[in-house]
Amino acid sequence: MSIGSRDFRFQWQGLSDGFGLGRLCVFFVVLGAFLTVGVGALPTSVNAQGSHKSVLESVMLKEVVVTARKREESIQDVPLSVEYFDSEQIDALKIRDLTDLSVRMPNVALDDAGTMRGIANFSIRGLGINSSIPSIDPTVGVFVDGVYMGTTLDTVLDTFDLESVEVLRGPQGILFGRNVTGGAILINTKKPGDQFEFSLRTSAESGGEKPNFYLMGSMGGPLSDSIGAKLSFYTNQDKGWFKNLNTGDAFGERDSIMLRPVVTLSPSDNLEFVFRYEYHNVDGDGPAAQSHGNRRGDPNNQLPDFKRNSHKFSIDEEGFQKADTHFFNTRMDWDVSVGDGTITNIFGWRDYEGKTRVDADASPANLFHADAWYDARQYSNELRYTGSFYDNLRLTTGVYYFNNELDYHERRSLLGGVMTQDGGGNYEVRTLGLFMALDYDLTSRLTLTAGARYTNEKKKAKIASLVDNWSRPDLPLRSPCNIVKEGGCTMKFQDSKSWNNLSPKLGLSYQLRDDTLVYSHWTRGFRSGGYNLRDTGIINPLTGEATTPGPFGAERIDSFETGFKVDAGNRGRFNGAFFYNLVDDMQRELNLPNSKVGVAQEIRNTADVEIFGFELDGVLALVDNLFLLASVGYLNPEYTKVKHDLNDDGEVNDKDKDLDPPRAAEWTYSVGLIYEAAVGNWGSVAPRVNYAYRDKSFFTDSNLGFIDKQKMLDAGVDFYSYSSQWSIGVYGKNLLNEVKHGGDTVLPSKLDVAPLGGTFSPLAKGRIYGVQLTYGFAL
Question: How many CA atoms lie within 13 A of 255 on its CB side?
């Protein structure tokens, strides 16, 4: 297992109440004196004939290779802030999907929106979204085997049989394109190995109402000298962690299955093709939606008002989520003599179909329920070249094309079905990108980094407003319509627009010593403009006119980052980064309560923002086989200019400017311990404990909706056999039973004439206990 992420952290409990000056000083003394950046790691087995100590030393000294700059290089040589988790770390941490990493990294929040499972609301360094609208572009791009995921739907991926996960803090627009102003997440799945391998794993979890079961496995290897094949499968049978107080039954059932065949073909020594296909099916309940006080002082006498620190909720519509995803990608790597380089081509195709139903009033009263249909299709192709010239120039350049088509329909059932509102639209995105990045060694220790990306993007939209497509059972001339299924909706808005952007980068890195790298760079990021497929047509109080679904403008960020990386050899590693971001025309979804449609969601360029912050993290070998890991992140975002009414009081003034930008927790930190010891001739045992903390952050731009601070305590112990064939793990996650909400949407005081109030706040699971058994062998 490799070093490079903050896997096993035992957080300093005393810091969980917030940083005082004294505590902050002590924490930095601990970091500076003891820690070293990187990712702690644990071998999955110990050789019976080898030295136990030498195994751990080899783990600590193992070079972590990342692809953050679209070429393989040591993580300590990359002048970027990068997090890395390899397959052994993912397995040891019992990470089931990306949200399990949500509170483990400084200034990183990998949250699920909760409206339906699998919608990514990721945020890095205070740049994130708070939406389930499928036409909203993310600030953190997700790339699976080099293919960009065109929507946030079904991107909170299951992590079984992954080679690695790399988290790059942004912006990363030079090599990865638009919509990575916050950063990029690179997910790399495993290929067939050089020998036949078989692995089977099963686990069971409890802690809530009913158990949760996993079964996963893989087998594959060489079929001939030039062909390899591998098949992986994953299934999850979740019987429901929650309890719906309205029915008294367990809630949160979810069945999912994933199949992934992979074939490699190497017709010659310098040419390789990799073909991957993945099928993913999900069938489960809707969200566990909690309602609680929304700080507006709304009367909520008829609806439940649950405490924010409880997992209690009561809903009459349990809803559902059904989704099918097909994903195919192929990669070619051709080694050529020109510049001793490689030509790489990556093609990807993805098709997603889904349907959901949500109890949006989060109560046992039938006041506000919502259905949604999704049909998204994308394909992309990237052709690039990477090579070296004159012994001091390394070049990466290429061309990228992306096409995404989306059909979306939403139906809101209000006041027990007295009125139905239908809306949504058809959406198409076409993107062409040209990029170049180079590193030029000015001296043996000083390197100049430069690059640029040109992007042309065109978006087309046909949109039906919810207020234009209403129907009532007592009015037979007005009937529901459906854009995805049969059509028939009134589409009053149709438009298209193009955006052009040139994003440059310039930086220097200096090898201060053989074990110390310092770097500094300026880079520009770009998030394209677009259209709102969830148009409500509400009246803007400033203009007296109905709002339109767009187009809203592009978002631009200029980022200045300075960092260092120290490799202390067999004692550990220590890395840090300091950054200053200037965001122009920040693109936000304004989540506003509205008595006519329940919730109105406008997308606007709301403000200019400055964000200052830093991250420090490290791993230290305290004694033989005992490692201490820690990290800390700080964010300080401020509005410098407000261009839209954020608090919905009908004015744009200093009250808006004094609000805090959402999705930007001020402090995040973690501390952990991991230990490994031999157990006679039987095998080895590895206990671990980690504690991670994230400050409170706001969910809505009005600051009425917010996400509570998180204190995550995880622990476990794994037993590994000397034969390397089996292991047993016992673990606990979220042992403090912290309450975490995917969102916190404020509902109106009244919905038409009916009292409403409260919030729509989807819950994540609380405390979990689990046991896992793994068996595998290689021939």
Answer: 2
Question: Closest Cα partner for 751 from 370, 440, 438?
Answer: 370
Distance linking the first and last C-alpha atoms of the chain: 21
Rounded Cα distance, 645 and 626, in Å? 53
DSSP 107: T
pLDDT > 50? residue 26: no
By three-state DSSP, how is residue 87 classified? helix
pLDDT in tens, 197-249: 999 999 999 999 999 999 999 999 999 999 999 999 999 999 999 999 999 99
Q: Which residue carries 């067999």 as its tokens?
A: 570
The residues, ordered by sequence, that sit 6+ positions from 88 with a Cβ below 8 Å of its Cβ are: 1, 2, 41, 42, 43, 44
Reply yes or no: is the peptide bond before residue 593 cis, omega within 30 of 0: no
For 376-431, write each residue's pLDDT tens digit: 999 999 999 999 999 999 999 999 999 999 999 999 999 998 999 999 999 999 99
Dihedral angle of Cα 10, 15, 16, 20, to the nearest 10 degrees: -160
Asked whether 532 and 550 are in contact (CB, 8 A), the reply is: yes
Q: Which of 635, 741, 552, 762 is nearest to 127 (CA)?
A: 635
Half-sphere exposure in the Cβ direction for 11 (13 Å, CA) = 29
Supply the pTM of this predicted model.
Answer: 0.91
